[in-house]
Every structure is written in structure tokens, then in C-alpha cells.
Amino acid sequence: MAWTNIEMADEIILFFKPYSSVNLGIGMPTAIAERIPHELNIMIHSENGVLGVSGRPKKDSASPTLINAGKETIAIKKGASYFDSSMSFGMIRGGHIDYCVLGGMEVDVSRNLANWMVPGKKVTGMGGAMDLVNGSKQVIIMMNHFSKDGVSKLLPQCLLPFTGLDVVDIVVTELGVFKPTGTKFEIIKLAHGVAVEDLKMDKTILN
Questions:
Q1: What confidence tens digit (pLDDT) does each residue in 122-147 have?
Q2: Which of 11, 39, 47, 186 is catalytic?
Q3: Coil vs helix vs strand at 198
Q4: The domain that contains 181 carries what CATH number?
Q5: What is the domain count for the chain?
Q6: What is the pTM of this model?
Q7: Could you confirm whether 47 is annotated as catalytic?
Q8: Tens digits of per-residue pLDDT, 55-111?
Q9: How far, in Å, CA of 203 to CA of 184, rounded?
Q10: How far apart are CA 106 and CA 86, in angstroms?
Q11: Nearest-5° Cα angle at 154, 153 to 160
């Protein structure tokens, strides 16, 4: 009924155009790196200073110094390059990243994103998210549809502190693909067997 993380990753990859640059956030989005077809020739960017990530390394080729922004060991593809943080964020802020895929805590109809803190709980920092949502040409959010309390995280208005305003293009959850339009969420696709009622969303914000 609901998509797995791998199936969610495959749905997101359908949005990528060949020869694009893609930044993947920590957590769920990292699954995408291992699913991208070779023929798309995607260059994965990591804000700690790598362009050309190609998923996880094999056990005999892993290097403790070759990591992504989430400190996970990575493999690289032919043509990869390395650079410092200032160059990396210059690429992001300069509009040279075609897609970024980030996790999310809340997204609202106005295309706003909250994904970095819950008031009163431990704060690990914004990381590069604020730069990515404003500098990338297209922002895709990959997240669970419901909070731990069973409440939809697609809302009329975000309740948590914002990461970015008017920045989200597409949201992919285990239940479907959604596009915030400014006033509603357009349902692009639902997972097999999922009905609108299963979304547990305010019907006034669905289209």
C-alpha cells in the first residue's frame, strides 16, 4: 500500500533530467544515490566539497576520509572533483545545483518548509539546508507522510520554525507525490492502493 524508501527514491529520480547536478540531504534522501540509472549521468554534489558521488563504497574500497555531508562513507564516479566549503557553497548560492532533495518535518500549501528544529528539543543546526532551498533550481522534499502522532505533515501552514519560504516544488511521501501550489496541494500521484482518505489531510487544501 505505502511505498518503501527505495520506491520513494525511484519516484524522485523520475524528476531528474540527464546531466543534472543533484544535492542529497542526510537521512532518507541518501537512498537516491544508489538508485540513479547510470545513463542519466547525474553528478551528485555534497556540500562538504565533493561533486560526483555515486552511492556507497564496497567494503574493500571505503575510505574514512571520503564522506558526504552526513559523515557517511561514499564512492565516487569518474570525473569527480573535490573543493573547499567556500567553493561548495558558492556553487549552491550561485544557482549551479539543479535539484536538491531534503528531508522535511512540515511543508505547507504556500511552499514553505520546516525541517531543522523542534522548539524545546535538541538542535543540531541548520546545516546547508537554508542555502540549498534558496539556491537550487528545484527543491524536492522526501519525508514520511505522518508525524509520530499520526498527523499529516502536509499542512495549511507550517507550525515549526521555517527553513525557507516559498521554496518547495515537489513533496514525495510514502503515500504519494504532491505539489504545493500556493493555496492547495495538487495530488500528482498516489501509491498503489492509497485513497485520498488515507492521507488524513484537510480536504480544503487538496486538489
A1: 666 667 889 999 999 999 999 999 99
A2: 47
A3: helix
A4: 3.40.1080.10
A5: 1
A6: 0.91
A7: yes
A8: 777 777 777 777 777 777 878 888 889 999 899 999 999 999 999 999 999 999 999
A9: 9
A10: 29
A11: 55
